[in-house]
Design a protein that fits this description.
Blueprint (H helix, E strand, L loop, with lengths): L2 E10 L5 H13 L4 H14 L8 H10 L3 E2 L3 E10 L4 E10 L5 E2 L11 H15 L4 E10 L1
Antiparallel strand pairs: 1-4, 1-6, 2-5, 3-4
Helix pairs in contact: 1-2, 3-4
Length: 146
């Protein structure tokens, strides 16, 4: 049984490699923003800037998993709040969600493919690898059964 999702959320863990952690720490020292704010802005910039092929990374990843050129069109960035058991404090993680019903092919037509759970897992792996995060967690809101 295939399922159709209303929205798909990607939550990003901390920066992975030490050089990226050092770069973020340096940016924090230069400005007045927290590490969480700087990291979230950095990820949003990478996900939405136009690449050499004229597309955004978000479009590129979904084009790859759907095996056709797509435009995501609607996405939303915010923070995911979670309780840190070690420190006993709330911690922010950057996140964004997409709405599959808003995705189109490059001509603007609605998609004729259903995004599966396996495709979401592949997209999360691609985002994690490209953005160099320790982990990417996903949540999907079910729209209906097909």
């Amino acid at each position: 049984m295939e399922q159709k999702y209303k929205d798909i959320t990607f939550i990003f863990g901390p920066a992975g490699p030490q050089d990226l952690k050092d770069k973020i720490a340096a940016w924090v020292k230069e400005g007045e923003k927290s590490e969480a704010e700087v990291y979230a802005e950095y990820l949003e910039y990478l996900l939405t800037k136009k690449m050499e092929n004229g597309k955004h990374l978000i479009d590129d990843v979904f084009s790859e998993i759907l095996r056709k050129e797509v435009k995501v069109n609607k996405y939303f960035f915010t923070d995911f709040m979670q309780w840190d058991k070690e420190t006993g404090e709330m911690k922010k993680s950057p996140m964004f969600n997409v709405h599959p019903d808003e995705m189109t092919d490059i001509e603007g037509r609605p998609l004729d493919k259903v995004i599966t759970n396996d495709m979401v897992d592949v997209a999360a792996s691609m985002f994690g690898y490209i953005l160099k995060t320790d982990w990417v967690r996903t949540y999907m809101v079910l729209k209906e059964e097909l």
